[in-house]
Amino acid sequence: MGAPGAGKGTQAKRLGRARNLPHISTGDIFRWNIENDTPLGRRVKACIDAGQLAPDDLACEIVADRLTEDDCRDGYILDGFPRSRGQAERLSEMLRERGESLDLVINLEVSDDEIVHRLTARRTCPHCGRIYNLLFAPSEDGVHCDRPTCEGVTLVLREDDREDVIRERLQVYHSVSEPIIEFYKKQGKLCSVDAMPTDRDAISATIEDLVNSAPASCSEGTTS
Ligand SMILES: [Zn+2]
């Protein structure tokens, strides 16, 4: 778990590689379906266009379906799911049916101001869609896209990455994620990790340690 821009995707991918487990990102699955204009993609797009999060049923359906694949037999990492209390409860049911239990919920903690700082530094190529970040991964000259096919194209700040839009998304995030955090805290599954430092390797190492010591409970305090 973690707000948009907390580094969830990056850390989930790294953990997946380190443990040889599939990284299941509902956001990636949604995006793929939208890009390929599948029936699912059209349903998701309708929600996004209406300014809503994907409904619980849709996200649960996708996850349940993905978990039936062979590579999930020995475990998996969920990224971007559950995103509401309803989804968290459905996940508990799914796991019960599968005879599995959740090992750990890792919550990446980053202040809102830091998230705004990180996300307003994003720059997108209007030609190829590639995303750069002035703080972490700037283009070569910081102004133009690096791709040879985009020669001379100036990177732009997308509407989505403007401060007011980000603050609004953060509000939505906090209102839906707090009940989930409580839900997992009560179960003794929640581990909060201080993800404020921009040293991604250090954060990965902390997460690795937590996973190695799971299922030892760590529902209290923040590990850094
Ligand atoms: Zn480009």
Give a written overview of the molecule:
There is one protein chain. The chain has 224 residues and is mainly α. It has helices at 8-19, 26-35, 39-49, 56-66, 85-98, 112-119, 163-186, 200-213, and strands at 23-25, 77-79, 105-109, 122-124, 131-133, 190-194, 222-223. Strands 3-6-7 form a three-stranded parallel β-sheet. It has a two-stranded parallel sheet with strand order 1-2. α4 runs parallel beside α5. The structure holds zinc ion.
Give the distance, in angstroms, between the N- and C-terminal Cα atoms: 16 Å
What is the number of E strands? 7
Ligand catalogue: zinc ion
Secondary-structure element pattern, one letter each: HEHHHEHEHEEHEHE
Overall SS class:
mainly alpha
Shape: globular
Widest sheet: strand ordering: 3-6-7
Described by strand count, sense and barrel closure, the largest sheet is: 3 strands, parallel
- The radius of gyration is 18 Å
Quick summary:
The protein contains eight helices and seven strands.
Give structural attributes:
224 residues, mainly alpha, three-stranded parallel beta sheet, two-stranded parallel ribbon, 8 helices, 11% strand, globular, binds zinc ion
